[in-house]
Amino acid sequence: MALTTHVSQLDKTQTPYKIDPDQTLRASQALLKHVKAEVQKLQESGQKKNLLAAGDSDDEDEADDAQPIWLNLATKQYLTDKHRLKPSKIPVPHSLNTNENATICLITTDPQRAVKNAVADPAFPSALSTRITRIIGLSKLLARYKSFEQRRQLVSEHDIFLADDRIISRLPKLLGKVFYKGTAKRPIPINLAPKESNKEKSKKIPKEERQAAVASPAVVAKEIEKALACVPVTLSPGYNIAVRVGLDSFTPEQLRENATAAAGAIIEKHVVSGWKNVKSIHIKSPTSVALPVWLAEDLWSEKPKAALVETAGVDGASPDAETEPGNKRKRKVNATRGPQIGERKKARLAEERAKEKEDAAARKARLSAQKASAFQAD
């Protein structure tokens, strides 16, 4: 039975700009059921489970037994006109970093000693400090990891990479496609700078001292824990955002809560015009079809109500006046400029607007019929 047949028809009474929790739960149940069935089928055939793992990175050493669940959000208009080098963090109720043995690499500003002292401080949680296996400054990162193979080795040695947000925009050029071609090992920004009081802000502190300043051990630990509990979102030119919101080990309720929270935060933070600019929201695994959790009633943005600009006729005749003997100018009867067109222009514009409304109504009717047949229950 096809996976899409497990998802019943959308509730027609739901609010247009709100995710239906029942629909999201049904999609989560169907998706997780499909993932488990696929894993069991591969295990019975003697294949390894990690063949299903997300292949968004060329790193051969990257092994993750947990299969990710993605949230795909499509918009009607462009999200941004350029790549955002600094990813944003979206908090979710259930963290994806559930492995307590996952190692962490911290990339910091220079000098790195201040961060090392903060992590080694007794006030820093010991359970978290044991997971931080390397703290490396920006200058040492540049000096020690110049070649492609050295960066591949760095990627394979750690599970999670965190970076000071003061240098996060410089890392793509330094780390290269080993880190940034996929999304699994991209550094997540954390704020390690201390909070300055009004008196400190008024003082003229040298830039080097501000860059080297690090917050207290308790604040550093809190920032790291906050980053581990979030999902990173990187924007690029286009109409889609894809973000990991769950694992195949999640329950349907956990996946629903993460998907709902992530979608709402992404729309509020990154989508211009909010829900009105959202076309669809789906969830999927790397090997499944995308299951819908929300679809827009109108897939096209409303056209601005602006006056149509009149142009010259198709026969190439100029709309300007025709010069006659005696240097007297006489406008053509069918000219598209000037006060002589009067009511004729208004009538033509009214006809064009009425035709546009009829075309829009026809498109909506066809779309509604397509959606009703696509989401029809067994």
Overview of the molecule:
Residues 190-209, 312-378 are annotated as: Disordered. The chain is of the alpha/beta class and 378 residues long. The protein has a domain at 98-195 and 205-228: Rossmann fold. Helices cover 36% and strands 16% of the residues. The strands form four sheets. A four-stranded antiparallel sheet has the order 8-1-9-10. Strands 4-3-5-6 form a four-stranded parallel sheet. It has a two-stranded antiparallel ribbon with strand order 2-7. The radius of gyration is 29 Å and the shape is globular.
Which structural class fits the helix and strand makeup? Answer: alpha/beta
CA gyration radius, whole angstroms: 29 Å
Shape, per Cα inertia axes: globular
Q: What is the percent of helical residues?
A: 25-40%
Low-confidence stretches: 4-15, 49-64, 303-325
- The total beta strand count reads 12
Report the span from N to C terminus. Answer: 10 Å
CATH topology of the domain at 98-195 and 205-228: Rossmann fold
The largest pleated sheet is described as: 4 strands, antiparallel
Write out the strand line-up for the largest beta sheet, numbering strands in chain order.
Answer: 8-1-9-10
Question: Can you summarize this structure?
Answer:
This is Proteasome-interacting protein cic1. The protein is of the alpha/beta class.
Which tags fit this structure?
378 residues, alpha/beta, Rossmann fold, 12 helices, 12 strands, Ribosomal_uL1-like
